[in-house]
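Late entry, evening session. Most of the bench is empty. Finally got around to the prediction I had been postponing all week. Sequence below, unchanged from the version circulated by S.P.
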Amino acid sequence: MVTYPSQLSETFDSPTMSELQFRPRPLSRQKSGIVQRISLTGTWIDGGGANDVGLTDVEIYGTFGFPLPTPSSPLLVTPGYQCCFFNGPTSTDLPARVHDAYLGVRWLHQCSDSWGMDLAVSPGVHTDFDRWDSDAFRITGHAVGKYEWTPWLDLIVGAAYLDRQDISVLPVMGLVYRSSDCVRHELIFPRPKFSWRLARGPSWEDWFYVAGEFGGGSWSVTRTNFAQDVLTMREIRLNLGLERQRDGGGYTRIELGWVLGRRVEFESGIGDFEPKDSVLIRSGWSY
């Protein structure tokens, strides 16, 4: 489910002095042309019993890069679409599906040798497409800065604007520590990640990682009594993953996770409930 752009920890993932020291040719995170990324991701969460809620969602997006004013300070434009199908529960009237259609605009800029920034805004429509109202339109975004304290340690600080019913703004803060070419610690709230490289080839690398994320979203929906309401889902995800990274920024990954702290809320307060913890399977492919 869409919360905010998910690549915050990869914002300034260009080769550092420490990486150049350990490996002769780091993988590039960018492509030379306008088309930077085409991505497809599918997620399944088990629904458990009749009084719980499961989901299946599919997201596709493309990222196109333009020099502003140079390739080292790119403007990234990302149109995307996500559809989430709900399974259950019988205790409240969730819609059969909800949709997220958005257009992300993001600017990356290296202000100096030590300072970099990442600015993004993403207007979008988040609804069941049954009826339209002002609650269906939301604007998300983030403003994040990075300070390279040492060649092995970056400090991250900023904020993410979610424009959700439950939480409007989240702080983004932490650090990225590279103890070697094979180990990367991203102690960044709200999306920490710890990665270990397993193998590498001339144009690929295999990584194992442990990651956490704050999930959920808000959508304008129509209830069974035809009243317009706002559905908000909140959850925390803890994932184990395997990923093959390819030169140019592409990847193939699969994740197994545990979903906890789940909460389903309506703006009206009618039908709120707390689903049980569940398991997650997610796979993704990116060009």
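Two things to note before I forget:
The first strand starts at residue 35 and ends at 45.
The chain has one domain: 8-286.
Will write this up properly tomorrow.
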